[in-house]
Amino acid sequence: MSRPLELDRYTTATLSAALDDARRAGRPAAVLWPVGSTEPHGPHLPLCTDVKLAEENARRSALWLRAEGVFAVIAPSLPYGVTDFAEGFAGAISIPAAVLVGLLTAAADRFIADGFDHVCLVNHHLEPGQIDALTTARDAIRARHGAHAASFPKVVSRRWGARLGDEFKSGACHAGRYEGSLMLASVPHMVDMQTARALPPLDISLSKAIADGTPGFIAAGMGQAYTGDPAAASAMEGDLLYAVLAEMVVTEVREALAALLEASAERSVEQSTERPAEQTIETPAPDDADPSGKQPGDPAR
User: Fold this and answer.
1) What is the pLDDT of residue 273?
2) What spatial distance separates the first Cα and last Cα of the chain, rounded to whole Å?
């Protein structure tokens, strides 16, 4: 049967059953947790932009992981983070890094206690203080529960950032073409393209401004809380970007779970060799299988 992607759509009974089924089938269970911020994104994108990007990336990644045999669910989003660089604009709601780390690690402890094997922090708020806090949280979760227990795929890493387009690589990508395209590919009704088309390109590298010690958007010259080229955003480009971003999440979850997946495969081989030769071995159906239960390559029933 098909199970929801969203964790909060389960009851306690249906979640327990889903985790039990995954465990019996030797399938890892992973939580993808969208983490973002409430922060200004120009006059054309909403304060929840970073959260919406993380949610869509988590959705696409969860579908991909399920197709690979991982029982993946999406936790309710965390809409607050370290947002100090946007100070001075209405709607810039920042929390201390220690509070963020404490919340993430405490919740991860509970996810793992419930039976999940892995927690992936899916983040699209790229302020250095946010990235440092999430790195600290990931490391703390791994220290408590093992290296397989947490991942934090970093959009700004060389491994992935080099594939996210010229505007992203330039650093002039806050509420510009990059983020606008991602929003158009996921929640287009939340993008004011009429306003975006009237905004001139602004070639201010936010990453360079931060590295130079500039204290915030306003001091960097971002008087409308954007940089880049909002008018150039398109849904087509957004879909291409999400393909890379979902690959990022799936790859790093897969890498973290490699030891568990290998152990699961070994158990499956051992169990199959222990069965009587005349017994038909059926493959557990994935969560999104056809309701009939028939899968390509299934033994005849």
Assistant:
1) 67
2) 18
For all residues of the chain together, what is the average pLDDT?
91
Question: 109: buried, middle or exposed (CB in 10 Å: 19+, 13-18, 0-12)?
Answer: middle
* Unique residue bearing structure tokens 């309701």: 291
CA-to-CA dists, residue 87 to 40, 163, 188, 222, angstroms: 9, 30, 27, 12
CATH number assigned to the domain with residue range 24-262, chosen from the 4 options 1.10.10.10, 1.20.1440.20, 3.40.190.10, 3.40.50.10310? 3.40.50.10310
- Closest Cα to residue 223, out of 44, 86, 49? 86
CB burial of residue 126 (10 Å; 0-12, 13-18, 19+) = buried
Q: Any idea how long the chain is?
A: 301
**Residue whose token pair is 């990931």:** 138
Q: Using the predicted structure, report yes or no on whether residue 180 has a pLDDT greater than 90.
A: yes
Number of H helices, E strands in the chain: 12, 4
**Strands 118-123, 71-74: pairing kind:** unpaired
- Give the Cα separation of 203 and 5 in Å (integer): 39
Q: Is the pLDDT of residue 298 over 80?
A: no
Instruction: Locate 139 and state its tokens.
Output: 């490391």
